[in-house]
Amino acid sequence: MRKIFLTAFAAFAVTAAASEVVKSPDGNLSLTFDLNEQGTPVYSMEYKGKAVVNPSKLGVELKTGKSLTDGFRLLRTTRDTFDETWTPVWGETKTIRNNYNEMAVRLAQDDNGKERYMIIRFRMYNDGMGLRYEWPKQENLTYFVIKEEHTQFAMTGDHKAYWIPGDYDTQEYDYCVCRLSEIRDEMHKYLNPENASTTVFSPTGVQTALQLKTDDGIYLNIHEAACVNYSTMSLNLDDKNLVFESWLTPDAVGDKGYMMAPCKSPWRTVMVVDNACKALDSKLILNLNEPCKIEDTSWIHPTKYMGVWWEMITGKGSWAYTNATAVNLDSINYAAMKPNGIHSANNENVKRYIDFASKHGFDELLVEGWNIGWEDWIGNMKDYVFDFVTPNPDFDIEALNKYAHEKGIKLMMHHETSGSLRNYERHMEAAYDLMNKYGYDAVKSGYVGPIIPRGEHHYGQWANNHYLYAIKQAAKHKIMVNAHEATRPTGLCRTYPNLVGNESARGTEYQAFGGTLPHHVTILPFTRLQGGPMDYTPGIFCMDISKFAPNNTSKVNSTLCNQLALYVTLYSPLQMAADMPENYERYMDAFQFIKDVAVDWDDSKYLAAEPGEYIIAARKAKGTDNWFVGGVTNGDARTMPVAFDFLDKDRKYVVTVYADAKDADYETNPEKYVITKGTVTSKDAVKMYMARGGGFAMSIYPATDADKGLKKLKIK
Amino acid sequence: MRKIFLTAFAAFAVTAAASEVVKSPDGNLSLTFDLNEQGTPVYSMEYKGKAVVNPSKLGVELKTGKSLTDGFRLLRTTRDTFDETWTPVWGETKTIRNNYNEMAVRLAQDDNGKERYMIIRFRMYNDGMGLRYEWPKQENLTYFVIKEEHTQFAMTGDHKAYWIPGDYDTQEYDYCVCRLSEIRDEMHKYLNPENASTTVFSPTGVQTALQLKTDDGIYLNIHEAACVNYSTMSLNLDDKNLVFESWLTPDAVGDKGYMMAPCKSPWRTVMVVDNACKALDSKLILNLNEPCKIEDTSWIHPTKYMGVWWEMITGKGSWAYTNATAVNLDSINYAAMKPNGIHSANNENVKRYIDFASKHGFDELLVEGWNIGWEDWIGNMKDYVFDFVTPNPDFDIEALNKYAHEKGIKLMMHHETSGSLRNYERHMEAAYDLMNKYGYDAVKSGYVGPIIPRGEHHYGQWANNHYLYAIKQAAKHKIMVNAHEATRPTGLCRTYPNLVGNESARGTEYQAFGGTLPHHVTILPFTRLQGGPMDYTPGIFCMDISKFAPNNTSKVNSTLCNQLALYVTLYSPLQMAADMPENYERYMDAFQFIKDVAVDWDDSKYLAAEPGEYIIAARKAKGTDNWFVGGVTNGDARTMPVAFDFLDKDRKYVVTVYADAKDADYETNPEKYVITKGTVTSKDAVKMYMARGGGFAMSIYPATDADKGLKKLKIK
């Protein structure tokens, strides 16, 4: 009976025995889909006729019942093509073209006589591919629990990889660059048993976005897009066969996803380009996300800000108001407690920052440590850790906001949650109300430490659901969100552009925690930044931290010009000048670049790039004819040509160049720079020296009469 | 060095080598505290000179570091006495006397040269003892994680126990009555592998409140009071030595408590009385709770209510509006869906109930199924399962509330959470706002199904924290809470009297799910009701459910008069008439008792009681001279004397008696009753017959001129 049924159905349903192929609009990238003998979905990819992804299986293993991994039949294939240009609320370019060919294969699986359906949708772009699983509304599959997703990415060779370890709770690693076959050996340096907050899951597990380079000079990048109500994907490498496979973040009981059809997975993406600059140009992740769902976006704005922050990060000051070892927010009486005397977020100090930030044209000033609860916020798995509404006694929230507003800037709110998600959600509405009351329009949120509810992870479905909830609730209050320690972004800022930033990688703070490898900033744009902007917090001008925080021997592994370049090379609509006023005051000529540089753009051009080595980017400031150029190198000094051919032809520009001095060096002489000013046209080119850990920056504007005495730019 | 240190400290600190004794105010109950050779705290109890609790260890095992179980020294003992009479917002009596002698032992423990402190506080009442652990603010112990609490209750013999299995997620069991040594054998009937929702943790694990009876006729009861920010305690029996030990509910990762000093455990209580009526009189649990923390309690009121409920529970009607198998609340369009035609919470049906309930003087009408989401609310671990604010299309929330208010009653809100705690908390404020908007002042909440976050349990610290959060937030909105499937109460209704009821035991609904043992209602007041009132939902008048719900063959194991008696024997400020108007309309003379009976009292007298066999209670209605009497029996018929000596002397009363007919029987003839009216004085007595599963009820009021023709009560 069953056999007859199946045969009859198959005759009706199967539309294709041969492989299904879909190509990118330019025809260079092609994907072949098939079902193997076990009925398992398999895809492979070619670029310009050459394999870039070997046959790779697709499927999802369920916690109970028959898994969605094999026994499939192809019911039908539908195809579509799409070409649209959309305008981001903020971004690297004024408009973004979203152009792909789509193929969706509708698969059927017999589950003890009951038919179940799964669609795999492929979108082929000129620079890459996205695929996702879709479970349409159907009779025999509604609620299901994912034990593991088994999406493979079979590599064609022992590629070079730019990777950090797969981890359920932190992304704040230095990158390792090595061959795929070397990952297992290199993993040891990340397995520090003293670091209890890491949850590395496999000796060959890595995070996305994973940048790869083939020996043929093809740049591959594996990531995901639009991760909504799903846990974050890492990749586990079968290093015998060089096959990556998806590895989802589990929840407290080990499950990896609670699904209800109709539903879909995030997009799994493979970028394929033959030039590193194209990798940085790619809008693959943004394009695979849904259009903006916020109707009125007029309140969302790019922001350049300073912060009462670096002095606490370095240990000069304190977030906490007292030296108490534990505080109960229900009963604490700060009036009866002794202040520790180093609380940075005090009225006087905050005013000092307001004065400086407003004088130099910043939009906002972040103040961390403004609220009560910092005495025991970390390391205690404390549930009710902050209330998000009560200032410390020395922070006059009303007066300081008034003072800032009178000076033309806003304060930026800070919500450290300490990973206590329920507590944050309980106080969220009141916290956002408080912000509205005092005129805050942006919040930096933080998720330091293990997640509460205990057993959940930073990148699981539970926490991912929370992060998006916080963003949506903030939008109702017209609040922009910059979430730190949240999961790595997957382009959701297209849909919710009030998500103006994330940390979700190793940021500048690590320069105060022992330092970061100089190549870091040459890799981030290929990896972490693919999913959305990072609040990297550049702009450090004093590289020897012990100069102002004597107990901290950490050095910032960067030259001052490298720090300037980051405002251009690390795209973000939210850029911080992270250092303290007193450190900027020693280099006001260099600080001028930070004052001048834009944070929103009409156009961006990557002039040169190689992951782990260097990046040079030029960007045209929004609504102007001004350009800014930044260049960074890794731990090697190098000289790179910069042609000004991105400028309008037949027009003269004035360029100010901020360059490492010849004797600059991130280790020995990091703050040595030379500023040069001159004129250029689109026909000109210069050679720019970058010291070890160095870089350069340029600000460019069309020449006016006032510049007529200026000579041609000459870089010595 | 360390030895010297310890010796010096000991000489300074130890104040007592001998045992410490504390007695109840009447001197009958005494407790002896000591430290054994390992420095482990040990207590024992005597009643009238005879051991009732053998030497039992105390202590708390920690997840990391040295446990708080041994190595203690006694630093000092402080004593206090307390005698106060307080007035409950609602209750069984007008005032409650809180009279105890207290002894607190301050213990010190050396943890590698660092001293840690723990206080064990004992309170001795005439009817029992409470002890708790307290961790004062101290240098060397602030944050700690409890692996297990090891509070022992060593029994002096193989007592009779009235117990249900220890379980992390349900309390809705029929009771077992057996010797302690028989529990292991009897447990098998609860271990049903088909019931996935049970999480029985041990073959000798039982829940509190645990009623025990010694062969000497002493009634012991082990429970807890004031369980706040702590997980619920069960008891595990070492059945070789007859020692119970605390067994806390774990969280998702197996931990049992996250603590931050200063903090304390709930009270662990042992009631000791020589008469079953005294056990029911006891206010031990309420007295061990903190006084009321709600300043204005004027909005809290006892409530008699009906509900659109029994027709769904029995299967006659439906909570859901459609027969869809899954709904997505974000996208559902009910207008495009086909109604199932049996949705009970429809305008017409609700009006019918409003008409009936208002006509007969009820305060409120509960309506379940009013809101969207019931199609797939159970069994799917669905996170976003209800929004708590959107009515089904056939429930006009504005019009129905208006209609009810015009008729002098309120609607009662219903919030089923399906165990999805985060989802409820996210919508709670809006849900309570909606209630305020439409004039609801009470909510029945429910927690059916596994808890989300997954891995948490109904009785763990996480969920307990949630239940109290919901109560506190409700109080801000002047909303009374009646939480079902929440943890068993521990007297918190004294502190938060807007907690007007809980289910937290096997309620009347099980009479529609296959039936409940007749002895159930003779045990609940000894066990479940010790911690606070239960929304038992009595008042069923049609015991053969198939008469109106043909597919349901369940029978209500009770006579109609037993149902009437429950309004008196099961004290609650919230009493439901749970059956449907059409069933009441067939017995309007008996229904008169439900109309008449009070729900708040100035006095209560237990006239006769034996757990598992019978209870007879008399209560004096608040602010009146009216009394109501109820008697229930188990599966055995019996005749019991009732003396009216609780009435004022030298005064004539009119009594209406609702009694099982001679041929009544819960199985064969449950709805047969006889109503008799006559006069009585305090010198009179009658003999009341109770059928198998039966009972009787009486309403009594002072005779007036209108009653002068009435004859002396005579029960045939």
* Biggest interface pair, counts: A-B, 32 and 32 residues
Which percent range fits the helix content of chain A? 10-25%
Secondary structure category of chain A: alpha+beta
Separation of the first and last Cα atoms of chain A? 86 Å
Mean pLDDT of chain A: 95
Uncertain runs of chain A are: 1-16
Output the radius of gyration of chain A: 26 Å
Count of helices of chain A?
13
The global form of chain A is globular
Beta-strand share of residues of chain A? 25-35%
Summarize the structure.
Chain A is of the alpha+beta class. Helices cover 16% and strands 33% of the residues of chain A.
Question: Could you characterize what this model shows?
Answer:
The structure is a homodimer of 716-residue chains. Chain A is built from 13 helices and 36 strands. With 716 residues, chain A is of the alpha+beta class. In chain A, strands 6, 7, 8, 9, 12, 13, 15, 16, 20 and 21 form a 10-stranded antiparallel sheet that branches. Chain A has a 7-stranded parallel sheet with strand order 27-26-25-24-23-22-28. Chain A has a 6-stranded antiparallel sheet with strand order 29-30-31-36-33-34. In chain A, β17 (233-238) and β18 form a beta hairpin. In chain A, α8 (421-438) runs parallel beside α9 (461-476) and α11 (560-569) runs parallel beside α13. The longest helix of chain A has 18 residues, at 421-438. The A-B interface holds A 137, 139, 142-143, 145, 251-253, 255, 258, 260-262, 325-326, 328, 376, 380-383, 422, 425-426, 429, 453-456, 462, 465, 469 and B 137, 139, 142-143, 145, 251-253, 255, 258, 260-262, 325-326, 328, 376, 380-383, 422, 425-426, 429, 453-456, 462, 465, 469.
